[in-house]
Write a structure and sequence with these properties.
304 residues, TIM Barrel, 12 helices, 14% strand, binds 3-hydroxy-3-methylglutaryl-coenzyme A, binds magnesium ion
C-alpha cells in the first residue's frame, strides 16, 4: 500500500530500555512476567536486559536470573546489551540470540554512558563482536544521540556516519540509529538514516526513537517512507536513559502498533494483549501507561 513496507518488525525494548531507568527496584518476577506477557502478545523480538556494571545500572543486576527463567518459545528472539568482554562472557552463558554493542555519535555522551571515547569504545567492541559472531550470535549496534546530544547539542549526519562506518568495519551486522533524547524531526531523521543505509542493507537498519518531544510517530513514518521496517519500541512507553537527564521512554509500542494497524501494516502483535502487558507492568511501577493508545483503550474497557 502506498509504497510503505507491508510488514514491520518491532523490537520490544521495554524490559531493558524501559526498566533500566526505574529508580525503585523492579522485582525479577515482575520482569519475567513482563517478558512472558509480551510473548503472549505476539512480540517476537525482545530486548530483555543488559550485562553492564551493576554499579552503573543497578536495575539490570538480575540479568542472569531473568534470562534463565523466561520462556524460550521457538520463533522468539532475545537480545541483550553487552558493553565489553566481561558483559559478553556473562551474556553468552545465558544464550541470547543477539547482542547489542552501544556506542554514541558524540564524544561527550560516549564518556558519560560507557566511560570512554568513541574510538576507545570501538576498540572495546571489536573483540566483543568477533567472539559473538564466532559463537553464532547476531550482533546489533545502537548509536546513541544520533539526532542531538544532551551534552554536546547539535550532532551532524557526518558524526553519525563516522560511527556507523566504524561499527560496520568491526563486523556489526545490524545498525540501530537512536534518538536518545527525542529531539529528531522527520527530515533530520531521514538524513541520519540515509547515512546508515550507505553502509548497511535496508533490512539491517532500524530506528530507536525516544518520544520526549512527541516526534517519534512522525519519525517512524518518515522511516517507513524510506522503506525502513524495523523499530525499537517500549510497552507502555516505559523508560529513559540514566545518562540522558530528562529523556523519557521510547515511543510506546501500543501507539506504534495502532498506527501501523491503521496503515494496514502487519506486525504480528495483538494490540489488546500488548495493552494488558503494559497495564500490568505500569501497575507494578505505580504509574499509568504513557501510551496514549493504551490509555484510550483501557478507558473504554468495562470494569468486570
Ligand atoms: P568502567 O568503570 O569504565 O569499567 O565502566 P571498568 O572496566 O573499569 O570496570 C569497573 C568495574 O565495573 C569493575 O568492578 C568491573 O568488574 C565492573 P569493580 O572491580 O569496581 O568491582 N564491570 C562490569 N560488571 C558487570 N558487567 C560488566 C562490567 N564491566 C565492568 N559488563 C562500563 C565501563 C561500560 C562497564 C560502564 O560504563 C557501564 O556499565 N555503563 C552502563 C551504561 C548503560 O548501561 N547505559 C544504558 C544503556 S545504553 C542506552 O540506554 C541507550 C540505548 O537505549 C540507545 C539510545 O536510546 O540511545 C541503547
Ligand atoms: Mg534508548
Amino acid at each position: 500500500m502506498n509504497g510503505l513496507p507491508s510488514r514491520v518488525t518491532l523490537v520490544e525494548v521495554g524490559p531493558r530500555d524501559g526498566l533500566q531507568n526505574e529508580s525503585a527496584p523492579v522485582t525479577t518476577e515482575a520482569k519475567i512476567d513482563l517478558v512472558r506477557r509480551l510473548q503472549d502478545a505476539g512480540c517476537r523480538e525482545i530486548e530483555v536486559t543488559s550485562y553492564v556494571s551493576p554499579k552503573w545500572v543497578p536495575q539490570m543486576a538480575d540479568n542472569h536470573a531473568v534470562m534463565s527463567a523466561i520462556p524460550r518459545p521457538a520463533g522468539v528472539r532475545l537480545s541483550v546489551l553487552t558493553p565489553n568482554l566481561k558483559g559478553l562472557e556473562a551474556a553468552l552463558a545465558d544464550r541470547p540470540d543477539e547482542i547489542v554493542v552501544f556506542g554514541a555519535a558524540s564524544e561527550a555522551f560516549s564518556r558519560r554512558n560507557i566511560n570512554c571515547s568513541i574510538e576507545e569504545s570501538i576498540e572495546r567492541f571489536r573483540p566483543v563482536v568477533e567472539q559473538a559472531l564466532a559463537q553464532g550470535v547476531k550482533v546489533r549496534c545502537a548509536i546513541s544521540v544520533a539526532m542531538g546530544c544532551p551534552y554536546q547539542g547539535e550532532v551532524s549526519a557526518d558524526e553519525v556516519e563516522r560511527v556507523v562506518r566504524a561499527m560496520k568495519d568491526i563486523g556489526v551486522q545490524h545498525c540501530g540509529v537512536a534518538d536518545t533524547i527525542g529531539v529528531g524531526t522527520p527530515r533530520r531523521v531521514q538524513a541520519a538514516m540515509e547515512r546508515a543505509l550507505r553502509h548497511f542493507p535496508l533490512h539491517e537498519v532500524s530506528g530507536h526513537f525516544h518520544d520526549t518531544y512527541g516526534q517519534a510517530l512522525a519519525n517512524i513514518y518518515a522511516c517507513l517512507e524510506m522503506g525502513i521496517h524495523v523499530f525499537d519500541t517500549s510497552v507502555a512507553g516505559l523508560g529513559g536513559c540514566p545518562y540522558a537527564k530528562g529523556a523519557t521512554g521510547n515511543v510506546a509500542s501500543e501507539d506504534v502498533v495502532f498506527m501501523l494497524n491503521g496503515l494496514g501494516i502487519d506486525t504480528g502483535i495483538h494490540l489488546d494483549r500488548l495493552v494488558d502487558a503494559g497495564a500490568a507492568i505500569s501497575a507494578v511501577i505505580g504509574r499509568p501507561p504513557v501510551s496514549r493508545v493504551a490509555r484510550a483503550l483501557l478507558a473504554k474497557r468495562v470494569p468486570s
